[in-house]
Design brief:
This protein is 24% helix and 18% strand. The protein is built from three helices and four strands. This is Metal-sulfur cluster biosynthetic enzyme.
Length: 147
């Protein structure tokens, strides 16, 4: 004889709380503020250096040297430092966007260079191999790519 489990409810899996320390959107680029303090400019350079720790999972090269990062600045809002990054992908259909977002959050917020990270996915201009830095080209050649 089998036991009747029709009244049993499936266990409830609670969703993880949304990470408020980072956000991303696919609405395109945000405009850089017209005025930045010297400190904010220096902080943006720091954010760019930490973004070099973000590796494109398909190519194995960092997103800065691949030319995927279009603009970076730092804003202050309610006493929090927000790093804003406008960037693109090698393909709009990239299935690994969440991997790049997670790496960027870990690199920028994890380093303490910002309290929050805002990634804005930009599609114009479209990415092309001409956007790769010379360092990126050297890295790609070392991996066997002809660039």
């Amino acid at each position: 004889m089998t036991q009747d489990n029709t009244n049993e409810q499936a266990p409830v899996v609670e969703e993880a709380a949304e990470d408020k320390a980072s956000s991303s959107n696919f609405d395109g680029a945000r405009e850089r503020p017209t005025e930045q303090t010297e400190e904010q400019v220096a902080q943006a350079y720091d954010v760019e250096e930490y973004m070099r720790d973000v590796i494109d999972p398909e190519l194995g090269i960092n997103v800065v040297d691949l030319g995927l990062v279009y603009d970076i600045w730092v804003e202050e809002e309610a006493g929090e430092k927000i790093a804003v990054v406008n960037m693109t992908l090698t393909s709009p259909a990239c299935p690994l966007t969440d991997v790049i977002e997670d790496q960027a959050h870990s690199a920028v917020v994890g380093s303490g260079s910002a309290d929050k990270l805002e990634l804005n996915w930009v599609w114009m201009p479209p990415w092309g191999a001409h956007m790769i830095t010379e360092d990126g080209r050297e890295q790609m050649r070392a991996l066997g790519f002809a660039v």
